[in-house]
Amino acid sequence: MDYKILASDFDNTLVPFGEKCPRPAVVAAVKKMQAAGAKFVLSTGRAFAAVNHPGQLGGIRFDYAITCNGACVLDSKGSIVAEHPLTPEEMYALVDFCDDYSYPLQFNFRDAYYAYAGYEYLRDTYARAKGSGLACLDGEDRDRHLIDMPHAAFMIAPAEAVEKFQEKYGYLGLHFMKVGATDPNGYNSYDVVRQGMDKGVGLANLCEAMGIPLSQAVAAGDSANDCGMLRAAGLGCCMSNGTPDAKAAADRVIGDVREDGLAALIEELWFGGPEARPSGADLGSPWAALEGKA
Q1: Residue 156's closest CA among 227, 207, 98?
Q2: Which residue from 46, 229, 74, 73 is spatially nearest to 153, judged by alpha carbons?
Q3: Domain boundary residue among 167, 193, 219?
Q4: End of a domain among 193, 217, 246?
Q5: Is the pTM of this model over 0.85?
Q6: Cellular component per GO (predicted)?
Q7: The domain that contains 237 carries what CATH number?
Q8: pLDDT digit string (tens) for 130-153?
């Protein structure tokens, strides 16, 4: 198969947890693949502003980015290819709910994260997650959405909060995705997007815009929010350090992120190298409250 693009998750696929950027072998492989004419697509739960830093990517310059779990697809210059922003009704429901229960809430806009509730908590949480590349602005004046609407939200709340939200606002169909582990206080982190949104939708939008079939796309990921993309791609590859659900969604399992599994996959598919074999053990995260955010 003549594959045209590689769509890669960020955390624990492109970059090992706890490290600031991809390892040299992965950087070299991605650049070699791009020089051969294939496109590199960063696919992440984060917003464009949080990943648009070549230094954070070890010098890799992505050709496209699927951001906010598929809700916004952009080219390397930040021009929108496809988007599915939250509606005002969806956004206001989240604000009202988090106000009622004092839950931290941020909205993921194209230019930055804005905390609409619990700014100090979110600021301090990101500060503790050193090396994550995440930060937020104080948006508690709640006027940023007057420019354009956010593509996603991020909420920190106990598990029962999602059920309470759905009891009141279930008709909106918002999709809550738990990311990472429960923190010591019993709170979970949730990415929130519109109904039906995931990285697979973003990948399909991108392939349509590029005029190529999904069969010519390779996807690599490691966790639950990658499952849609792994299923949608012509070849879905889960890291051997991935979660059971991601492995089940993939066509094959490849090498561990700490053993340059993505680099081996590129050498195999684009340059006829040896088959990228799975190896290594599952990895944990050094920052539990926010792990799996990519």
Answers
A1: 98
A2: 46
A3: 193
A4: 193
A5: yes
A6: cytosol
A7: 3.40.50.1000
A8: 767 789 999 999 999 999 999 999
